[in-house]
Design a protein that fits this description.
The chain has about 90 residues and is mainly alpha-helical. It has one domain. The protein is built from three helices and three strands; from the N terminus they run βββααα. The protein has a three-stranded antiparallel β-sheet with strand order 1-2-3.
């Protein structure tokens, strides 16, 4: 439910401006999952991909896990099979 810029979620209230990027992240991730399951190369559009990557980068910073992500994205390391930001 939306009230004055606030959205009620299972985790409590969030501002709509903070909530929408989380939904975009979910759509991009699950869209990529679906493409892989169908044997198709995932190609999320630039706008949603930017939002998803920005949200993930923010989560990495908040969790003090930015270094492994930076190293992985620049080809200097890999992320373990159990690594997640979610």
């Amino acid at each position: 439910m939306h009230r004055g810029g606030l959205v009620t979620t299972i985790a409590g209230g969030m501002r709509l401006v903070d909530y929408l990027p989380t939904r975009t992240l979910e759509l991009v991730v699950h869209g990529c999952d679906l493409a892989v399951a169908l044997g198709v190369e995932p190609h999320p559009p630039a706008g949603p991909a930017t939002t998803a990557l920005t949200t993930l980068a923010t989560l990495a910073i908040r969790a003090d896990r930015s270094a492994p992500v930076i190293l992985a994205l620049t080809g200097r390391g890999g992320l373990g099979p159990d690594f997640t930001l979610l």
